[in-house]
Each structure stands twice: as structure tokens, then as C-alpha cells.
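Hypothesis: this fold can be encoded by more than one sequence.
Test: take the C-alpha cells below, design a sequence, compare later.
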């Protein structure tokens, strides 16, 4: 008789953070379904979550460390692997300093306890400025816009999906992605509910996506022109007297400056560039202004383009000018339970980028990071400050960043490379040591990052479901690396790392007169912490200091980890609530509608309006059963429509005489791909998914390698960036298409 039980686990695979009920049979995950009692996701699940068992049990997932012996990656014990890290990383640091070590942090860091609580300690331990992440392939423009307007790059504005009357989705496809920078389980259901209650859904996307098919109206602009389109909406709001700041009136500065800037972006001035008739832009602006509540929500298609930061800014500008920011039904600021408790409003230090610049191309630093597209040149260009060793954590930049071939060669040449990753893939195959974290079911989960993006405030925690069998968990792996950097050595006690963070945090808190624990005793507070592993102690500390916390016993019903654990389906903390002015940290203490760096970039946008482009523009696409580069190895998610094809409009295909294989030529190279004819593509636009190209030797994902696809990012040469954020242009790339042969 099999021994079967169930256990709860929050899904770590995308930003929707669904609660899952896992079936455990004989110590393995054998099934996953939606947890109907989860306070946030209420039973929603997608095919990826449903395949969590396959992911947990994937035979290609590394269970033991690999170390390079005589050029070959071979299995080793944990002690051996940490000893190599200590010796080889130590040698590079001794010779060239911690600043010579480059770090690349990939997407799953936003979903793991390790990435949230421990990766920052490794960066600090190195003292390096060579820090790169998937953010500059993704949402960095949004951070910059938020930082400049509100004073903090992590004060996210999210659409109040459950209450809005009018939702504009620009450059996102949540029916497939399940939402991004707007954490909402069952995004599809929320869009349907919006329409059911009489609301309106508008989708702006060059492709008629699954989301567009659900919309009341779909506008299909030319790729890369969102900023111009959004500016035209702003223009109409001013020109037709539709600006109404509502309750924000006392908190916004720079309105007149924006009015002046918008002058030259009339719908008529942008219609040719955007490929949207002026009348339709006007109508959209009027409807947004007239709706009882409205929310404009922009994502990848607005972000990873030439004017990504300006576009992300204008999304918020429209929400502000129509009085929709910070009110129910508009766009609001979530308040996560592990974030700092709100303090009284006060002017902040403001937000600055460019505190230093990248060594080779002089790209400005943004949030302490340099552009991922510049990682290869920082490794392969000699001279002072060159990267000599690399650490990658949960990332696959050889496939996810532009010009992976160059990075591939560069990584081969570093003196030492460490990867913390469960797979031997296109990037980690260059490592000298791979330290594999355990699978999701053996890891704890709390959404430190994504709870600050949730469309409804909530707190949920999953302790590990399965035992570790003597392996270190990811917090321990990262702690041991940090101990090497602190000079303690990998055999030191990992609890030291958490102890240090707790002591530093509490010392600061008790000295802060606005803290909920002002004036208390650090020793007394420390003794009160939950008696669990280090990450649980830290989570308990954060919750208790946080906005809903018990302030270490001072608030009777406040949140603690103990209370959270007693509610395994989570604790609902209610709908989003207004947070202005408390959240503002600009120097002026206001919402700055016209920050200088954004104003300065407008001329570049205006100049681009006159550009006449021939040829095709390439955009990306995601698939429901795929996740960037790393889930092509699971049988349940492979095959069917999840294929690496070039989608093209039938008339374009006919004009070019395309029947099966196309040659695609971009600024960085040339690729061959099978075509998929579909009238969902706008004419003149073609699409390829990313994360494919599993044909390099020496990787360890057998199923993925059997249908490798091509790496779209090889069409990119890595020199095209949104200058304000350093984000690579991944959408709207000029390409030439021809029939192969
Ligand atoms: N052309 C084009 N390129 C794109 C995009 C696009 O739309 N078009 N999208 C961009 C975006 S939005 C992103 S976020 C990036 C993603 O870029 P990356 O983050 O560089 O790539 P991923 O494919 O997400 O790789 C994730 C890695 O994390 C590992 N991993 C999985 N779980 C864990 C874990 O629990 N711990 C650890 N340590 N590792 C884990 C996986 O094995 C894999 O190696 O790609 C970007 N690249
Ligand atoms: N199934 C699945 N889910 C995922 C992922 C995955 O790989 N697969 N990846 C996760 C990650 S890391 C992220 S960041 C999110 C991304 O989440 P989303 O941003 O929702 O996902 P995308 O599919 O990249 O949507 C971008 C849309 O922008 C459109 N687009 C391209 N160029 C332009 C343009 O110039 N203007 C406009 N208006 N639209 C344009 C594209 O056609 C596409 O439909 O998804 C996450 N969820
Ligand atoms: S939508 Fe995202 S969080 Fe929910 S089950 Fe699917 S992958 Fe997991
Ligand atoms: Mo992403």
C-alpha cells in the first residue's frame, strides 16, 4: 500500500503565487491541484503549477554538486564543492579583489527565499559593482519611472483589478503569462469578472493575443511606439480639458511641464508612427477620462523597448492625470506584510541613477546594477576592473540576454565560475562549481518580493513539505558562500549570517523613533523570535516589524510567523488602501510628474516619430506551458503548440513566398526558423519566443535538447538599450525575412 498524503505549497513558478495542494506518495510529489481554500488564489492553477511534481522529480535535476575535474563537470560531495569555492573564489579575490567578481541574478530569485534574503548578502560580501540581473531584460524601466516619480524604485503601482471599471492593458498578455508586476492569481478570471460587471477591457498589442481576444477593444500598434501612443493620450487629456487630479491635486507637481511636453504629441502627430488612427487614440483618451474608475497597466511590450522608461512613466502619468492613482478601481500601492511599517510622510533623498558607470561602455548604474546586455563585454574586455570570476544564481543569460554566443565564449575564459542552479544548462555548463538547491517541495516559500505587487494584500507561508535528506537548502548554500566572503569559511555556522542580519536590523529599529519597536531592548526582541531556521527567524522579525505586525508583543492581534503558520491557507489582509502621501519619498515630498531625466529623453522620442522604417519588426511571445528558458525539460509541458516558430501574417508570408522555413536576419546575426502563419500577427510584425536554443554541447536537459529551437536573442547584438534604465530592447527589433534556400 502506497503511503499518500497532501500538503500545501505556494507555487514558485510565476508571479501569480497560486496556492497548491500537493499529493505526496511515498515521499515524492505525485500530483498538484489548486488549493480551493487559499485566501489569495482560491483554487486557481495553470499547467505549469499542475506539473510541479514533474519538476520536483525531473531526473535531470541535479541532486549533488558538480565540480570541474580535468575539465569535466563531475559529481562531488557538498564539503568538496564548498572547499573548491573557498579556495578558487578566495584566490581570485585575494589577487584581484571582490570587485573583480561579477554577479548575475536570474528571474527565480524573485520567487525564492534564498534569492530574497541571501543573494543580497553575497553581493555585499563581495563589494562588487559588477552586478547584473534579469531586471535589465525586463522591468527596470518601471523601477526607474517609480523612483523618479515617487522617490522609491520599489513603490509599485498595480491595477486594482477587482474594482476597476475600465482596464487598459498595454504590452502584456496575462492570459498566458498569468500577470507580471501585478500579482493576481486567476488573472484570466479577473478580466472576465471585469467584463461581467459591465466594465471595459482594452488591449494594446501588435499581436491579437489570447488577452486581446477577450477584450472589448484591441488596438494593434507598431512595436516600439507605446510611448508615443501614451503621449498622445496625455495630449488629448490636456487639449480637451479632461485632466482631473481628484484627490491627488495637493500632492502632484510638474503638471504644467507635462502639458507643454505633450503639445507636440497630438494623435495626428503620432498616428503614422504608431499605426493607429488618430480618431481611435482620441476616443480611448476620452473613455479613460470618462470612466468612473480606470487603470492603465503596462508590461513587457511597453518596457523592453527603445523608450521603455518614458513609456512606463507615461502609463502612470495617465493614471495620475485622470485622478485614478491611489484610489480604489484605479492603480494602487500594495502593502506587503514583510515590508517596513509605514512611517509618517517625509521628504526623502530622491532617486538617482548613474552613481557609477560601466567600465567598457559607460552605461549608468541603475539600482546598483549594470545592463545585462553589457555583461559579456565586461568579461571579455581586458584592463583595470575586468571581471575575473563570475557567480550566477538562478539565471541563464546565455539564452536570456542579447548575443549569447559572445557571453558563452566570455564565460569560458573567466578564472572561476560558480553557479547556484538546479540544472546544467547553456550558462551553468561554464561553471567550475554548480551548487544545486533542492526542488520546490523541499524548500520553504514566502513571497518577499511579489507580495508588494499583489492586487490584494495577503500573507502566506509554506514550510518545506519534504525532507532534505542531508542536502543543504538554498538559504544554507548561499549562507556558506557568504561565510567564505566574510572570511569565516564555508564550514562556519550558517546561523551566524542570519544572526548578524537580525542584530543589525533590530539595532537600527530600536534607535529609530518612528519604529514600532523604538527604544526597546535588542536582546529581548531577539529572544522573542520564532525558534526555527534562520530564514524563519528573519521572516518572523520582518512580519512583526511590518505594517500588520505585533510589534513584538505591543499589538495584541498583530501578525507573527507563528500566527501565519496557524493559517496554512494564508491570511487575507484586505483590498488595497490609499497610501499617498505616506509612501512618497521624493525630495519635494510630492509626486513628481515631470522628473528631469524623463523630460530630457522626450526629444529622442519626438525625433523617432519621423523615422520611416522598411522591413519587419520582431517581437517576443510567451507560451502558457513554458517559462523563460528552463521548463522545456518537462514532458507535460512539451510539444503541441509550445514550439519555437516564427509567427507571421499570411499576406506577409505570401508576399515573401514563405512556405516552411524562414531566414531571419537581425542586427546581431541570422537564424533559421519554421514559420507559423497566423492572422493574429499585425502585418509587418513577426514573433519568436525566447528561452530556446538548447543545442549547445555539455548541457544536462535531455528532453529540452531533443527539440532545441533557436535562440532569438542571437538576432540582437546587445547594443540597443533603453538609455535611462539600461534595459535591452527585446521587442521591436528590425529584421529582414526571406525564404530559406
Ligand atoms: N528575447 C527575449 N528575451 C528575454 C525575454 C523576452 O521576452 N524576449 N524575457 C526576459 C525576461 S522577462 C526574463 S525574467 C529573463 C529571464 O532570464 P534568466 O533569469 O536569466 O533566465 P531563466 O530562463 O528564467 O533561468 C532561470 C534559471 O534559474 C534556475 N532555477 C530555477 N529554480 C531555481 C531555484 O529555486 N533556485 C536557483 N538557484 N535556481 C533556480 C533554472 O534552472 C534556470 O537556470 O529573460 C529575458 N529574456
Ligand atoms: N507561461 C509563461 N508565463 C510567464 C513567463 C513565461 O515565460 N511563460 N515568464 C514570466 C516572466 S519572467 C515575465 S517578465 C512575465 C511577462 O509577462 P507579460 O508582459 O504579460 O508577457 P509577454 O508575453 O512578454 O507580453 C508582452 C506582450 O507585449 C506585446 N508587445 C510586443 N511589443 C510590443 C509593443 O511595442 N507595444 C505593445 N503595446 N505590445 C507589445 C507582445 O505581443 C506580448 O503579447 O511573464 C511571466 N510569466
Ligand atoms: S499561474 Fe503561475 S503561480 Fe499559478 S500555478 Fe501557474 S505557474 Fe504557478
Ligand atoms: Mo521576467
Amino acid at each position: 500500500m502506497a503511503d499518500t498524503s497532501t500538503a500545501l505549497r505556494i507555487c514558485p513558478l510565476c508571479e501569480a503565487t497560486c496556492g497548491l495542494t500537493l499529493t505526496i506518495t511515498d515521499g515524492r510529489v505525485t500530483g498538484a491541484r489548486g488549493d480551493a481554500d487559499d485566501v489569495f488564489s482560491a483554487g486557481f492553477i495553470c499547467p505549469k503549477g499542475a506539473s510541479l511534481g514533474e519538476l520536483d522529480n525531473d531526473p535531470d535535476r541535479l541532486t549533488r554538486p558538480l565540480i570541474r575535474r580535468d575539465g569535466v563537470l563531475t559529481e562531488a560531495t557538498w564539503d568538496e564543492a564548498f572547499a573548491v569555492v573557498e579556495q578558487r573564489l578566495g584566490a581570485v579575490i585575494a589577487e584581484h579583489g571582490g570587485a573583480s567578481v561579477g554577479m548575475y541574478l536570474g528571474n527565480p530569485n524573485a520567487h525564492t527565499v534564498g534569492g530574497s534574503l541571501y543573494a543580497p548578502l553575497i553581493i555585499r560580501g563581495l563589494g562588487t559593482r559588477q552586478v547584473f540581473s534579469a531586471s535589465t531584460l525586463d522591468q527596470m524601466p518601471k523601477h526607474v519611472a517609480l523612483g523618479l516619480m515617487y522617490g522609491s524604485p520599489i513603490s509599485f503601482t498595480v491595477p486594482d483589478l477587482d474594482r476597476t471599471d475600465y482596464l487598459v492593458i498595454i504590452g502584456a498578455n496575462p492570459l498566458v503569462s498569468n500577470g507580471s508586476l501585478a500579482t493576481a492569481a486567476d488573472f484570466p478570471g479577473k478580466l472576465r469578472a471585469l467584463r461581467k460587471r459591465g466594465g471595459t477591457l482594452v488591449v494594446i498589442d501588435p499581436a491579437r493575443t489570447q488577452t486581446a481576444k477577450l477584450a472589448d477593444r484591441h488596438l494593434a500598434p507598431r512595436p516600439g511606439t507605446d510611448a508615443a501612443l501614451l503621449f498622445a493620450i496625455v495630449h488629448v487629456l490636456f487639449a480637451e480639458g479632461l485632466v482631473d487630479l481628484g484627490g491627488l491635486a495637493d500632492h502632484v507637481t510638474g503638471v504644467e511641464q507635462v502639458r507643454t511636453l505633450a503639445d507636440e504629441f497630438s494623435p495626428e502627430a503620432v498616428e503614422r508612427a504608431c499605426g493607429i488612427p488618430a480618431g481611435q487614440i482620441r476616443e480611448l483618451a476620452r473613455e479613460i477620462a470618462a470612466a468612473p474608475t480606470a487603470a492603465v497597466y503596462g508590461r513587457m511590450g511597453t518596457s523592453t523597448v527603445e523608450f521603455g522608461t518614458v513609456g512606463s512613466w507615461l502609463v502612470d502619468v495617465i493614471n495620475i492625470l485622470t485622478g485614478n492613482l491611489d484610489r480604489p478601481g484605479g492603480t494602487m500601492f500594495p502593502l506587503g506584510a514583510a515590508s517596513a511599517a509605514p512611517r509618517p510622510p517625509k521628504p526623502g533623498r530622491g532617486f538617482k541613477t548613474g552613481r557609477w558607470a560601466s567600465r567598457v561602455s559607460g552605461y549608468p548604474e541603475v539600482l546598483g546594477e549594470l545592463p545585462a546586455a553589457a555583461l559579456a563585454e565586461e568579461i571579455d574586455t581586458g584592463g583595470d576592473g575586468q571581471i575575473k570570476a563570475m557567480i550566477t544564481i538562478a539565471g541563464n543569460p546565455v539564452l536570456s540576454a542579447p548575443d549569447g554566443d559572445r557571453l558563452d565564449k566570455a564565460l569560458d575564459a573567466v578564472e572561476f565560475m560558480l553557479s547556484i542552479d538546479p540544472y546544467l544548462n547553456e550558462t551553468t555548463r561554464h561553471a567550475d562549481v554548480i551548487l544545486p538547491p533542492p526542488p520546490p517541495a523541499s524548500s520553504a516559500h514566502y513571497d518577499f518580493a511579489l507580495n508588494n505587487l499583489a492586487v490584494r494584500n495577503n500573507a502566506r507561508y509554506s514550510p518545506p513539505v519534504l525532507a532534505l535528506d542531508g542536502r543543504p537548502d538554498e538559504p544554507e548554500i548561499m549562507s556558506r558562500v557568504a561565510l567564505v566572503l566574510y572570511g569565516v569559511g564555508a564550514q562556519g555556522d550558517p546561523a551566524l549570517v542570519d544572526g548578524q542580519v537580525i542584530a543589525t536590523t533590530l539595532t537600527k529599529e530600536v534607535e529609530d523613533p518612528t519604529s514600532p519597536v523604538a527604544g526597546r531592548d535588542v536582546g529581548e526582541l531577539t529572544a522573542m523570535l520564532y525558534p526555527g531556521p534562520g530564514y524563519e527567524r528573519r521572516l518572523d522579525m520582518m512580519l512583526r516589524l511590518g505594517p500588520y505586525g505585533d510589534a513584538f508583543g505591543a499589538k495584541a492581534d498583530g501578525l507573527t510567523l507563528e500566527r501565519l503558520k496557524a493559517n496554512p491557507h494564508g491570511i487575507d489582509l484586505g483590498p488595497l488602501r490609499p497610501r499617498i502621501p505616506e509612501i512618497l519619498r521624493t525630495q519635494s515630498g510630492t509626486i513628481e510628474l515631470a522628473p528631469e531625466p524623463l523630460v530630457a529623453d522626450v526629444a529622442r522620442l519626438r525625433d523617432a516619430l519621423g523615422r520611416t522604417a522598411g522591413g519587419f519588426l520582431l517581437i517576443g511571445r510567451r507560451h502558457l506551458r513554458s517559462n523563460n528558458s528552463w521548463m522545456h525539460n518537462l514532458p507535460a509541458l512539451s510539444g503541441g503548440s509550445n514550439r519555437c516558430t516564427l509567427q507571421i501574417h499570411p499576406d506577409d508570408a505570401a508576399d515573401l513566398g514563405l512556405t516552411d522555413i524562414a531566414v531571419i536576419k537581425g542586427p546581431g546575426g541570422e537564424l533559421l526558423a519554421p514559420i507559423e502563419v497566423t492572422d493574429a500577427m499585425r502585418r509587418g510584425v513577426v514573433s519568436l519566443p525566447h528561452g530556446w536554443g538548447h543545442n549547445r554541447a555539455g548541457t544536462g536537459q535531455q528532453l529540452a535538447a531533443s527539440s532545441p529551437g533557436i535562440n532569438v536573442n542571437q538576432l540582437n547584438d546587445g547594443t540597443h538599450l533603453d538609455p535611462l534604465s539600461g534595459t535591452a530592447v527585446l521587442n521591436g527589433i528590425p529584421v529582414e525575412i526571406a525564404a530559406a534556400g
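The chain has a mean pLDDT of 97. The two ends are 60 Å apart (CA to CA).
Hypothesis status: open.
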